[in-house]
Design goal:
The complex is a heterodimer of chains A (96) and B (581).
Chain A lengths: L2 E10 L4 H11 L3 E9 L6 E10 L1 H12 L4 E8 L2 H13 L1
Antiparallel strand pairs in A: 1-3, 1-4, 2-3
Chain B lengths: L1 H8 L8 E3 H11 L4 E4 L6 H7 L7 E4 L3 H15 L3 E5 L3 H4 L2 H9 L4 E7 L15 H5 L5 E5 L5 H13 L5 E7 H5 L1 E3 L20 H13 L3 E5 L1 H5 L3 H11 L3 E3 L14 E4 L6 H7 L4 E5 L5 H4 L10 E6 L13 E4 L2 H11 L6 H23 L7 H12 L4 E4 L3 H9 L8 E2 L10 H11 L5 E6 H4 L6 H6 L5 E6 L4 H10 L14 H7 L4 E4 L2 H13 L4 E6 L27
Parallel strand pairs in B: 2-3, 2-4, 4-5, 5-7, 6-7, 9-10, 9-12, 10-11, 12-13, 13-14, 15-16, 15-17, 17-18, 18-20, 19-20
Antiparallel strand pairs in B: 1-8
Classes of the chains: A alpha+beta (96), B alpha/beta (581).
Chain lengths: 96, 581
Amino acid sequence: MKQDYTLELVAENNFSILNRIVNVLNRRRIRIKKLMAHENENDFRKGGAVLLLHTTSDAMEKVKHQLEKLIEVEYAIYTLGSNHYLELSERIVDVD
Amino acid sequence: MDALLTKTEKKPAATKQKISGSEVLLRCLVAEKVQHIFGYPGGAIMPVYDALYGYADKLTHLLVRHEQGAIHAAQGYARVSGKTGVVFATSGPGATNLVTGLADALIDSTPVVCITGQVFAHLLGTDAFQEIDVINTTLPVTKWNVQVTEAKDIAPAIAKAFYIAASGRPGPVLVDITKNAQNELIEEFEYEACNTVRTYKPKPVLQLAQVEAAAELINKAKRPYILVGQGVLLAGASKELIAFTEKTGIPVASTLLGLGALPCEHPNYVGFLGMHGNYGPNINTNECDLLIAIGMRFDDRVTGNVSKYAKQAQVVHIDIDKAEINKIISPTVAVHADAKEALDALTKLCTKNAFPEWIESFKKLNAEEFEKVVAKEIRNTNSLKMAEVIYMLSQLTKGEAVVVTDVGQHQMVTSRYYQYKNPRTNITSGGAGTMGFALPAAMGAKVAAPHKQVVAVIGDGGYQMTVQELGTIMQYKIPVKILVLNNSFLGMVRQWQQLFHGKRYSFTEMQNPNFVKIAEAYNIPAAKVTEQKNLEAELKKMLASETSYFLEVVVEKEDNVFPMVPAGAGVAEVILEIPKH
């Protein structure tokens, strides 16, 4: 059963990092409902992204490991539902 | 001019000498102990090639005839030697010609570093001549890639590239260097090799609890079964595998890329797995009570229909890549570890055992295959079959040659009939299935292992995809042996058309050129076999040749490869002949 998941990633803020992340999701045809990416407020060399995805729990778990396999991704964590996405994205907007 | 030289000579001794970004690159390669580069020059990488002119005593560059040839050669070089293969190519089409090889190296875990030239940084994004967004083009087919626009960033990028390519699960890395960075002068530097990247953990720490859980399952199992993949070879764990199987008595089967991890003559070796694998290994996948998968990724060519795959068995999956665990098969116990460390630890924890009846069951099934398939192929008297050519090659080389195969029927036949004795002697395109791989890969393999007999076994279709590399073989006198099995068909596709598409041979028959004349045009001695009686003498002549040698064997046109797990079927539904209905 497909549901909404909030995916949070922390990564090196290098060129193409967002493409790398989206590419992993696209390969599995995972629907991206919302996406917010940002530089780390204290260190521009680091960054992160928060995504609201619509997929199955099985695909979510597998894609997490494929994302963490990307050299520049530090970690990827996910939670069920969209509440966490709203919290995280509001926090990012506040910082900016 | 003289005045200028005098000025240069009078430079103050204290001033550090400046060198170009191109020379920085070459010094990095020397520091990484690179000996061979496969490449092709062009506009955007000319400063590097200019600097290379002065490095002939330190770096040997081989000019290929197409960039795809360069990367496949680097792959063959890496797979035989365990060292990282290095490629140079120019921007635009030079770089895009690498894409197939990058994809091949990524799925087959081959360490390769590709250096591509790029247009000047100020021209990026302007559709300049031979400008292509190489980073985004190669992003899905590289383990990592990076663009460098300043000379000072070249050395750190190269150091990181070599570290990432060779560590953990190896793979291809591409470094795209703009022309201004190649030309820019910077002060001389001390090269620092990279041994850590903050966000990258290549080698997991072995978790004893995981190994103990695996050992507990193994010690209780009645019909355990080991499946080995290339991870064992990449970890250099053949000795540990032998120790493990000999102590536990567990039978071993191999994936396509795992061939050679355990000598085919070992009493515990029961055969080759998968769509065209041996009968016993496929049938018994659904009879075992424990599968121990080591350094393999449950490719669909191994599992057949996953919903019918080893449902009765518990599974131990050992892999260095966490994303491979639970990707296709959910293991009962996962050991996220390097194969060498895991096998060493497991052997200590497992009890000594033997499974003679269980191993005998594989042998009985393989005897059935021998009777229905093998005997007819190697003792055939009517026409030349692919199997008898490879069977004879295996006997004549005592299973000790480096055999490089392309993709298709000949590849599956070689995997079944060549009796590999040693690790890193089976070089083929596995996951990507890249036709055209074998000729350049064999060339690279021979450069890496000049004292080994290297034989490229290729079909007539794949041979013509990269046949231009005969020019490279001629120019550098690379004594590789080329054995083309010619059935004038794209044989594997034809086989599928025969079995599953009502024999509608849609665009698979090929009108071929005179292959012998083509080889001779490149000054490569060549011969052709059309009759069985000449096969042995011609193979011997090829193997005895001290130079490169081309041998075409005209084989039966509509020969099929069996056993076969038909598309959509389970591994236990493997067939030995064309179904009667």
